[in-house]
Amino acid sequence: MNNELLFKQVIAENKDRIYRICCAYERDPDERDDLYQEIMINIWKSLDKFEGRSLISTWIYRIAVNTSLMHIKRSAKKRSLHAEVDVETLNIPETDSREEKIKIGSDIERLFECINKLQEVDRLIISMVLDDLSYKEIAEVTGMTTNNVGVKINRIKKELAKLMGS
């Protein structure tokens, strides 16, 4: 398969995950779009370097997170990180009640606000949990052991519960 076809396939399979990472690291919609494009460019430039030692989705995650972290470091503005929720990327269950939709939306917004209060590594880990990655896949991305990932996830969940209660 040539690089262009592989790139299109990889992006089609991972675009929502990449966008959620952008949401977790960039508040401003224009900056978020720039970050997304920067990630796409880095994936394209690095495609020849993929060795197949991990899942390509794990490799894509690493590129997305590393690019996001570099983006934050380069950012001239000192601002709080706050994800604006794009409801279309969140697979919210269908409901007929307008009030229920509003409640779900505000709950999700609150969750993302709390996630943004976490440390960078914790935000990365919880975003992977929300994307249903296995402990093993999370360990590959973060460089932690699988057991350490489990412990870290439990601590993050407790921290989020505390933040959601406040």
List keywords for this structure.
166 residues; 7 helices; 70% helix; globular
Describe the secondary-structure layout.
Blueprint: H1 3-25, H2 29-46, H3 56-74, H4 98-115, H5 120-130, H6 135-142, H7 146-165
Helix pairs in contact: 1-2, 1-3, 2-3, 3-6, 5-7, 6-7
Spans where pLDDT lies below 50 across 5 or more residues: 76-85
Helix content: over 70%
- Quaternary structure classification: single chain
In total, the number of domains comes to 1
Strand content: under 5%
Task: Compute the number of strand runs.
Answer: 0
Q: Between the first and last Cα atoms, what is the distance in angstroms?
A: 51 Å
Provide the succession of SSEs.
HHHHHHH
Q: Count of DSSP helices?
A: 7
Shape verdict: globular
Structural class: mainly alpha
Task: Please describe what this structure looks like.
The structure is a single chain. With 166 residues, the chain is mainly alpha-helical. Helix content is 70%, strand content 0%. It has helices at residues 3-25, 29-46, 56-74, 98-115, 120-130, 135-142, 146-165. α6 (135-142) crosses α7. The chain is globular, with a radius of gyration of 17 Å. It starts with a helix and ends with a helix. Residues 76-85 have low confidence and may be disordered.
Concise structural overview:
This protein is mostly helical.
